[in-house]
Design a protein that fits this description.
Largest sheet of chain A: 2 strands, antiparallel
Shape of chain B: globular
Distance between the termini of chain A: 97 Å
Number of strands of chain B: 0
Number of helices of chain B: 15
Helix content of chain A: 55-70%
Oligomer: heterodimer
Strand content of chain A: under 5%
Shape of chain A: elongated
Strand order of the largest sheet of chain A: 1-2
Helix content of chain B: over 70%
Number of helices of chain A: 13
Largest sheet of chain B: none
Strand content of chain B: under 5%
Distance between the termini of chain B: 22 Å
């Protein structure tokens, strides 16, 4: 091989690869609206992305599989956790992970920021990325199944969607703060107090670890009914 | 034994780089403890994993770039047969770069960050990095332009460092779309390590091999052209192996898969040509440790970057391994094998000459090399085992996150122990480099 051939190999290799790559990049941008919902990139979503950067979330969590590998992937977190659970975790990690083998720092995220983050994660979840990560695909499917029959959702779906981050019921959700069947057994609140407790636990039981829940009064009422209904079997016993 | 006074600027580059290297390893040990044990909440609140990780990775980039720049300043006068254009610029640039890096690390401790992995340095500091890079490129370019002798190696070096600086710019803007954000993030990360850095590496290794073997320039430069050509041919489109799961068209699976599968080829070529040059050397071996490093670099580069990368680069496998501890395993082996060893090779080439030592006592250096190389290999294996467990449990069997990650606690305790051994190796090496002692040639060989 002569020096001339070697130079030719260098320039041919480099330039052909660079040209193909640049052309593919052009095509990537052209096709972007097909894979990401560009039209739904609202100010709220962009603000959420800034929150994501501000607290350096990506140096513990992966997103789209990129970042640090210390904490769960956030690509489909919206489907996996739901809005209320994300807000609770982000604002009160020291409570949610009190008994966990791995901790998340208390970052001082405000309510507004947490909600922006939810908007961002919801948008990220819609990126068409060939169903990655594999372990979260079941949550995506379950979410759209629930969406499809929103009018006739089972109570338990709504309750676990809101509370499943910390409470479990019949093998659903995570048992951080107790299973609903056990809680119902020891619960002494009436419906009104329970609703008040869900919306602002401190106002009923000062010093309790449970954070205020990011649900409206109607949903809080529904959750209260659900939990109180679990009580009945005990009361009919002599 | 330096031929040009201005080569001395590289001394401080090397010294600072070595200090940052030790600090990086210490931070790595701390990170492994975060996995190995349950840390108390108050500690996590003050010094979280993300802070430590951004320091660990930024120190890596900082010491390696300092090494590249110092190495370039050391070999450029020899290659151009004249003094550097300006030693003042070289020192000013070193000061700006090092001061920015230190400020950035302190800033991270107080949550001053852009929150973009590996590119966390916030804007005003990023501007300073660009200034330092421009000063560096200008200094290199002017030295080459003013030189009477022109060579392929000079242009390869200049091209490599300019490409490196150019790519950095793509990581600087704020992208609204996360998918676009990561598309260009890889222009920095991937095209650095599998493009620009490879070009700089190939050029520096070619120079060192030429200097110590006495193999003809024509032969070395021919290899250099073919290798860098193949590096860039496979590496540029090979970027596509990061685009499988970020929401991009299907053809990336093919472009990315095929071209990244070819990426080990130029590295194989590098091993072959290093081996051939060593066999056909015309000069006697003066310091065997330099050889240990050059051959070690070629082989480890192939194992860490080539084989470990190839293992999980094809889409059907990557679907399960993407974003897991397997990436950590590959990352450590590749960075240490390719660029860690390269920088140390440069230092072992430059430091004795800067200190006017022809032959040095190398017992400690040999120990340092072997301890680092073996412990990093085991570290890669341990991360790999943790990664296989994680992907198998979480993604294959669909057992929950916690169950999959609790298994890591054991493996990261092992990793911590191996990390301590690696730190010892690194400290021995750095100590050896700082205190090189001359041996009378022909005394007791």
């Amino acid at each position: 091989m002569t020096g001339k051939t070697a130079r030719l190999i260098f320039w041919l290799g480099t330039l052909s690869s660079a040209l193909i790559f640049l052309w593919l990049t052009y095509d990537f941008h052209r096709q972007e609206p097909k894979y990401t919902q560009v039209d739904k990139l609202s100010e709220e979503v962009v603000a959420g992305k800034k929150v994501w950067h501000r607290y350096n979330c990506n140096d513990c969590h992966t997103i789209l599989g990129f970042g640090a590998y210390y904490a769960p992937d956030m690509t489909k977190a919206f489907y996996r956790l739901g809005e209320n659970n994300i807000v609770s975790i982000v604002m009160h990690p020291e409570e949610v992970y009190r008994n966990s083998f791995r901790k998340m720092p208390q970052l001082g995220v405000t309510r507004a920021e947490a909600e922006q983050l939810v908007a961002f994660l919801k948008w990220v979840g819609t990126i068409d990325n060939r169903h990655w990560p594999p372990q979260d695909e079941k949550y995506v499917k379950a979410y759209y199944l629930r969406e499809a029959r929103a009018q006739q959702l089972e109570k338990v779906d709504i309750v676990m969607g809101a509370c499943g981050g910390c409470h479990s019921f019949e093998n659903q959700g995570r048992n951080v703060a107790g299973d609903f069947s056990d809680i119902a057994k020891r619960l002494s609140f009436d419906r009104e107090t329970l609703v008040r407790f869900i919306l602002n636990p401190q106002s009923v039981k000062p010093g309790i670890g449970m954070p205020p829940q990011n649900v409206n009064k109607e949903t809080a009422g529904l959750i209260a009914d659900f939990v109180l209904a679990l009580k009945i079997p005990k009361e009919v016993q002599p | 034994m330096i031929r040009f006074e201005s080569q001395r600027v590289s001394l401080w580059y090397i010294r600072i780089a070595l200090c940052l290297f030790c600090l990086q390893v210490v931070l790595g040990l701390w990170l492994s403890l975060n996995y190995a044990f349950t840390l108390p909440q108050w500690l996590v609140d003050v010094f979280a994993f993300n802070t430590a990780r951004s320091i660990h990775t930024n120190l890596l980039v900082a010491w390696m770039l300092l090494g590249f720049m110092g190495g370039t300043y050391f070999i450029l006068p020899l290659e151009c047969n004249r003094e550097l254009f300006s030693t003042k610029i070289a020192y000013a640039q070193l000061f700006i770069f090092a001061a920015t890096a230190v400020t950035a690390v302190i800033g991270f401790l107080f949550h001053w960050t852009r929150g973009k992995p590996l590119l966390e340095i916030p804007f005003p500091l990023n501007g300073l990095i660009v200034v330092a890079a421009l000063l560096f490129i200008a200094n290199v370019a002017l030295t080459i332009i003013k030189s009477k002798e022109k060579s392929a190696l000079q242009w390869m070096l200049l091209g490599g460092v300019s490409f490196l600086a150019l790519l950095y710019l793509f990581g600087m803007p704020f992208y609204k779309n996360l998918n676009t954000d990561y598309y260009y993030w890889w222009w920095v990360i991937h095209l650095w390590v599998e493009g620009a850095w490879e070009v700089v590496t190939a050029a520096i290794v070619a120079f060192i091999i030429m200097e110590v073997t006495g193999v003809e320039r024509k032969v070395v430069e021919k290899w250099l052209y073919v290798e860098t050509g193949l590096f860039l041919f496979t590496g540029i489109i090979g970027t596509g192996h990061h685009y499988y799961w970020l929401g991009a068209p299907d053809y990336w699976l093919w472009w990315g898969g095929v071209f990244s599968a070819l990426e080990p080829l130029p590295i194989v070529l590098m091993v072959v040509d290093t081996w051939m040059h060593v066999r056909e050397r015309k000069s006697p071996i003066i310091n065997p440790l330099t050889w240990t490093y050059i051959v070690g670099l070629a082989i480890y580069h192939l194992v860490g970057a080539g084989i470990w990368g190839f293992i999980h680069t094809l889409p059907p496998i990557n679907y399960y391994t993407h974003g897991s501890q397997i990436t950590v395993s590959h990352g450590h082996m590749a960075f240490f094998g390719a660029y860690g060893l390269l920088n140390l090779t440069i230092f072992y080439f430059a430091l004795p000459r800067l200190k006017n030592i022809r032959k040095y006592r190398d017992t400690a250096g040999q120990w340092g090399f072997w301890i680092m190389v073996v412990s990093m290999f085991f570290l890669g294996l341990v991360f790999g085992v943790a990664g296989i467990l994680q992907t198998y449990l979480e993604r294959f069997l669909d057992i929950g996150y916690s169950t999959a990650h609790i298994t890591m606690m054991f493996w990261f305790r092992v990793a911590f122990a191996i990390g301590i051994v690696f730190l010892c190796g690194a400290l021995i090496t750095v100590w050896h480099l700082f205190t090189l002692k001359a041996v009378e040639v022909g005394a007791s060989e």
